UniProtKB/TrEMBL annotation:
PANTHER family: ACYL-COA SYNTHETASE, ACYL-COA SYNTHETASE SHORT-CHAIN FAMILY MEMBER 3, MITOCHONDRIAL. Pfam families: ACAS_N, AMP-binding, AMP-binding_C. The lineage of its organism: Bacteria, Pseudomonadati, Bacteroidota, Flavobacteriia, Flavobacteriales. It is an enzyme of class 6 (ligase). This is Acetate--CoA ligase.
Length: 632
């Protein structure tokens, strides 16, 4: 079997395997040291190599005669716009914006936050930063000013690049006013805010720190890509952890470029010149790896889609985009398929389009239920491939590597280990468990190139969170098991992280906001099953004993607080008032028990519970409020 041999080679001799892959990208200085250790005794790749991501994504292709190939197709049903951007166009925009950043005083090693909707300027901004070694941190637009402020204080950007506004279904997102609000909230103050103006609906007050994006690009010189060390951080991407403070995942340059080039070919099975579409957002890791850097590195045309799977204008949008732009492989989250399936259960809308260009449909971001996978397979008539990874890994850890050879698809499994990832299922003691036994999903060190190199400002949290739990392994935070054929089944997070519509969120963070409400004595926030979004957060709240306000008013206020502090993306809409919360005798709230009861999972009431009679009360509240599966 081709896959098995290829995979085995990557595990038996990682240095040889990845050196060969690294040779497939253009280095300014080819690496001699393939794998080494950093100051924290953690793996680093291609230490003495030099390269530039922006060069590899743009200039290289122009130099090879592909300047007139489409690099990006911007398709925006929300603004009724389609724009074809060639590598020559991309070069013009990116090299001049990089010149503009330099003129504003940005240098290699400085940081820059990008808070933008899904418009070409977001990609230009990322590539312009990479061109001069400025470390970007893209923040998802669904996060509120408070979340943005936390990130500003952590990564201290000299500049924030934003747009006047974004467009959601029936709603304008005021990006620039959100940035202004975040700057007021943050302790650290950026020097400039570069604003790209689009379809201004509301008047936006200008500030002294504002710089107009368009005129900055117009007046700035185009500059060349600067060689970067392989270990230079290309970006910081914040992701939810188990505490209220997000973690800044650091990505290197050389390992990342090698891994992405490898992924496009061997995992997604796309060749240079073909069209690839990841329907996600630049604010997530998918947007970094497979809207921006991966496809462009591989000289694919990447689709930049500003819309939703439904209601922009309807559930046929995805099929229209695939057919119109000749997409060979597409990637989305199962939640998007569920949303489409709900609107068009029989798949009538699929029939309206010629999808013969589509060879593979990839799904990731959350657990893919078998019904969704089967529906997509039946309607699209192509292999539908669930694959598993996370912000930390930066590229898939489990998949069906179609570019090597298509393996049997087992619905419910996220597939087989991808080259470089020695995945093992461990028990509490860190011992490998037998096949089909559930445990903690861990990856044996060293991790392959392209995975996280550390946490920004917090190497201690990196060590404790990922490396200390099982010495010699990277701990993924997921639970799962391996079957007798080596297929891995991911069963879900083993911590307080939830996945809402493919968006990773921390319930601990939501709990902090709920607990801060003046009427709340104590609370618990956890994820429960949601038919469309996979999971949704639920808050249980015990009020202060002297509370006199209307319960409904309190509930509304709490929901508003979470939206204001964390953002609309939290989808926090359910708060229940209860008399007490189940706890252990030592006072720990039994969140997992609360979740399992809501989802009608098998649950054991722990012997350490303080008062078992609370469980009946909770079940009654769930039923009365039609929570989770207790709808009937
Ligand atoms: N900027 C501002 N607000 C945003 C946003 C953005 N980029 N993205 C989402 N939001 C807002 C939405 O407007 C919504 O606000 P509302 O409460 O006022 O309606 C809220 O955040 C929740 O968004 P979402 O969870 O996306 O729900 P939805 O009902 O708007 O759409 C789906 C549901 C399933 C169609 C949508 O979630 C989807 O397409 N998911 C695919 C997920 C995906 O691509 N994940 C990336 C990982 S692969
Ligand atoms: P993120 O860092 O936002 O990409 O989220 C990563 C988390 O999403 C993982 O740790 C998993 O819990 C979950 N996840 C991603 N893809 C899958 C998948 N294919 N199957 C199950 N869970 C997934």
């Amino acid at each position: 079997m081709k896959y098995q041999n290829f995979y085995n080679k990557s595990i038996e001799d990682p240095k040889e395997f990845w050196e060969l892959q690294a040779n497939k990208i253009d280095w300014f200085k080819a690496p001699k040291t393939i794998l080494s250790k950093d100051q924290y005794n953690y793996n680093q790749w291609f230490k003495d190599g030099e390269l530039n991501l922006s060069y590899l994504c743009i200039d290289k292709h122009i130099n090879e005669g592909f300047g007139e190939q489409n690099a990006i197709i911007y398709d925006s049903p929300v603004t009724n716009t389609k724009q074809h951007i060639t590598f020559n166009n991309l070069h013009h925009e990116v090299s001049k914006l990089a010149g503009g950043l330099q003129q504003l005083g940005l240098q290699k090693g400085d940081t820059c936050i990008i808070y933008m909707p899904m418009i070409p300027q977001a990609l230009y901004a990322m590539l312009a930063c990479a061109r001069i070694g400025v470390i970007h941190s893209v923040v998802f637009g669904g996060f509120a000013p408070h979340e943005l402020a936390i990130r500003i204080d952590d990564c201290k950007p000299k500049v924030i690049i934003t747009a006047s506004n974004g467009i959601e279904i029936e709603r304008i997102i005021p990006y620039k006013p959100f940035v202004d609000e975040a700057i007021v909230k943050a302790t650290y103050k950026p020097k400039h805010v570069i604003v790209f103006e689009r379809q201004l609906i509301v008047e936006i007050p200008m500030k002294n720190y504002d710089v107009d994006y368009t005129s900055l690009v117009e007046r700035s010189p185009a500059i060349e890509a600067v060689p970067m060390e392989s270990t230079h951080p290309s970006y910081i991407l914040y992701t939810s952890g188990t505490t209220g403070t997000p973690k800044g995942i650091i990505r290197d340059t050389g390992g990342y470029a090698t891994a992405l080039k490898f992924s496009m070919k061997y995992i997604y099975g796309v060749n240079e010149g073909e069209t690839f579409w990841a329907a996600s957002d630049v604010g997530w890791v998918v947007g970094h790896s497979f809207i921006t850097y991966g496809p462009l590195l591989n000289r694919n045309t990447t689709i930049l889609f500003e819309g939703k799977p439904i209601r922009t204008p309807d559930a046929s949008t995805f099929w229209r985009v695939i057919s119109e732009h000749k997409v060979k492989a597409m990637f989305t989250a199962p939640t998007a398929i569920r949303a489409i399936k709900k609107e068009d259960p029989t798949g009538e809308m699929v029939k309206g389009y010629d999808l013969s260009c589509l060879k593979y449909q990839f799904l990731a971001g959350e657990r893919c239920d078998v019904a969704t996978l089967n529906w997509a397979e039946e309607k699209l008539k192509v292999p539908v491939i669930d694959h598993w990874w996370q912000t930390e890994s930066g590229w898939p850890m489990l998949a069906n590597m179609v570019g090597v050879d298509l393996q049997k698809i087992k619905p419910g499994s996220a597939g087989l280990p991808v080259c470089g990832y020695e995945i093992q299922i461990l028990n509490e003691e860190g011992e490998e468990v037998a096949s089909s036994v559930e445990g903690y999903v861990a990856v044996k060190l060293p991790l392959p190139p392209g995975t996280l190199s550390n946490l920004w400002n917090n190497p201690e949290r990196f060590r404790l969170g990922y490396l200390e739990r099982f010495p010699g392994y990277y701990f993924t935070g997921d639970g799962g098991y391996v079957d007798e054929d080596g297929y891995v089944f991911i069963t879900g997070r083993v911590d307080d992280i939830i996945n809402v519509a493919g968006h990773r969120l921390s319930t601990a963070e939501m709990e902090e906001v709920v607990a801060a409400h003046k009427s709340v004595a104590e609370c618990a926030v956890f994820g429960v099953h949601c038919e469309i979004k996979g999971q949704k957060p639920l808050g249980l709240v015990v009020l202060k004993h002297d509370e006199v306000s209307e319960e409904q008013t309190i509930q509304k206020e709490i929901i508003k607080d979470v939206r204001k502090e964390i953002g609309a993306v939290a989808s926090f809409r359910d708060v229940l008032i209860v008399n007490r919360l189940p706890k252990t005798r030592s006072g720990k709230i039994l969140r997992k028990l609360l979740r399992n009861i809501a989802d009608e999972m098998n649950y054991n009431i722990p012997s350490t519970i303080d008062d078992p009679s609370i469980i009946k009360e909770i079940i009654m509240v769930y039923k009365a409020n039609q929570i989770g599966i207790h709808k009937n």
